[in-house]
Specification:
It is a single chain. This protein is α+β, with helices and mostly antiparallel strands. Helices cover about 45% and strands about 20% of the residues. It is built from 14 helices and 8 strands. Strands 1, 2, 3, 4, 5, 6, 7 and 8 form an 8-stranded mixed sheet that branches. The radius of gyration is 20 Å and the shape is globular.
């Protein structure tokens, strides 16, 4: 899953990888034994410098780790907001996502900063993602398939707190008959960045571009100038990196990534509008206007959470049973499990029935750490 195990320090460059998710955590744990303590924004951070995170082409789309506490419903909705380039201000985005909080069940994340949808799709009037795909279609071997997040004219003023984005560029590189992705971050938080959204987001963009180019997906390489974790989250990180040893696991089906570059933003915004309208019956036609069956599935998975939160358990069960079992459904089952357990104060028989089904799927997802 994560290439050959590497734990190499050469000229102070740290390379972290592993042939599966378990070995990646083990290698990461080894490299977190030492580091610098840095104070910033009223927090203390444990820092490692000049780190390369390598994830092989056989990786899963999501981290399958119960100890991470990920809310995959919020993760899917955040990704939809990125590819839909939704909202002019974070307050607009917050209104949509707040009903699917917390973003993480084990951490107190007091801020929400959406990543760079505008810089991907409308950077000085340019759709960078489409431009890169067009460049690579003309010449696969080029090294110029680069998407920029950093504009010196606008972001060089480091006196401003949020002047520079954490991500600086992505490069899509074709070699060995596969498409690779190199991403550069000036700084990346393990718990609030990589584990929360960045791993999934980068994975999705690499797989989508590879699909649009009709080539196989290669490695994902993430270079980080400063890899950080808050010292107050040290117990969380210790638990997160403690996993059972790797062994053969059940296969988990990955849905066809049928999101098209032509309709990506329109589909994502129709999905978000559906969520904004509280899945109202008279607006159900919006779902049918979504061309991507995958995004339709994500809408259904979000709808199930809405039904659970509004105590419509029978409707939730019926919709849950209609959604085809794949990596996304199993991941969201872990979030439904937490919702149902918190709702089941009266030990309802109906909730117990739904819990039984959802718990089995959640356990299948968490078993697939290898």
């Amino acid at each position: 899953m994560f290439g050959n195990l590497l734990n190499i320090i050469q000229d102070k460059m740290i390379i972290i990888s592993g042939k599966n998710e378990y070995e990646f955590y083990e290698n990461l744990k080894l490299n977190l034994n030492e580091g610098n303590i840095v104070c910033s924004n009223n927090h203390k951070y444990f820092c490692k410098y000049s780190v390369l995170l390598n994830f092989s082409g056989k990786r899963k789309l999501l981290f399958h780790n119960k100890n991470l506490g990920s809310n995959y419903l919020a993760m899917l909705l955040e990704f939809l907001m990125v590819i839909g380039n939704f909202g002019k201000e974070n307050i607009d985005r917050l209104k949509v996502i707040k009903n699917f909080y917390p973003r993480n069940y084990l951490l107190n994340l007091d801020s929400f900063e959406l990543r760079d949808g505008e810089r991907i799709f409308d950077w000085h009037g340019i759709n960078q993602l489409k431009t890169i795909v067009d460049i690579l279609k003309k010449e696969k071997q080029t090294s110029r398939g680069i998407l920029f997040f950093l504009d010196v004219k606008d972001t060089i003023n480091v006196e401003s707190e949020y002047s520079q984005p954490c991500q600086h560029w992505w490069q899509f590189l074709y070699k060995n008959n596969m498409l690779y992705m190199n991403a550069c971050f000036r700084s990346l938080s393990l718990e609030e960045g990589l584990f929360l959204i960045n791993y999934f987001e980068l994975n999705m963009f690499l797989r989508l571009v590879a699909k649009w180019l009709d080539v196989e997906c290669g490695d994902l390489n993430v270079f980080v100038g400063q890899l950080v974790t808050k010292t107050e989250n040290s117990n969380y990180m210790k638990e997160a990196l403690e996993c059972e040893s790797w062994k053969e696991k059940k296969d988990v089906r990955i849905s066809d990534l049928d999101i098209s570059i032509e309709y990506m933003q329109e589909d994502a915004n129709n999905a978000i509008k559906f969520v904004q309208l509280d899945f109202s019956y008279k607006y159900r036609y919006l779902r049918e206007r979504i061309r991507s069956k995958l995004i339709q599935e994500w809408v259904d998975l979000l709808h199930i959470a809405y039904l659970i939160n509004n105590y419509k358990y029978e409707e939730a069960m019926n919709l849950y049973n209609r959604v085809e079992k794949d990596e996304f459904k199993l991941a969201c089952a872990t979030s439904y499990l937490r919702l149902l357990e918190s709702n089941n104060k009266e030990n309802s028989l109906l909730i117990q029935e739904i819990l039984g089904v959802v718990k089995k799927d959640a356990e299948v997802f968490w078993e697939n750490i290898g």
